[in-house]
Amino acid sequence: MKYLEAFWLWYKQHYLFALTITTFLFLLQLFHLYWLFTDVVLRKITGQSFFIFPPFWGALSTVLDYTEIPALISTSVIYIHQLRQGTGKKGWLYLFLLNIQWLHLFWITDQVVVERLGAHAYFHWAAIVAWIAILIDYGELPVMYDTARQTAAEWKKYLSQNKNAL
Question: Where are the alpha helices (DSSP H) in 36-139?
């Protein structure tokens, strides 16, 4: 328990840094969600892709998607920290929305989604699972908004407290 308490003390002292890095990592997912919507979802609905970037950027989206792993861990730590402090009103909801992503990452991967939605059936079991994976992926959006909002508020507070030091 001594090490855990030391970690939380260190974390509290470096909270702004951790929050900023976490938000940056997490916001990289926006490009992946854009790709998913414009290249996968809209292709299934309309029959054509609306992804405006060259194919290389679709591959880059896959690479960026792997930044989700450290982002999920560090964002979970943020909400656990807030729950420990008694300040995270929506912490449990956000922890759920975050950590259900592991199901998507390791079971219903983007490759499965693309393959299943590439088939012709809309309501085949595999297609339903693919749509569930997409919904799980977009469950990150409220958490992204919340971490970005928190980051802006913390930086505003930090800058107002340290304006003479700048």
Answer: 42-46, 55-65, 68-85, 91-99, 101-106, 110-118, 125-138
* Residue 116 belongs to some domain of the structure: no
Tens digit of each residue's pLDDT (9 = 90 or more) over 85-102: 998 779 999 999 999 988
* Any domain includes 165: no
**Phi, psi (deg, nearest 5) at residue 79:** -70, -35
Find the length of the chain: 166
Residue 130 in domain: no
Helix/strand/coil for 123? coil
Give domain status of residue 69, yes or no.
yes
Q: Using one digit for the tens of pLDDT, what is the confidence trace for 39-66?
A: 888 988 899 999 998 888 877 877 777 8
pLDDT over 60 (residue 9): yes
The count of structural domains within the chain is 1
pTM, rounded to two decimals: 0.82
What residues make up the domain containing 142? 2-98+137-159
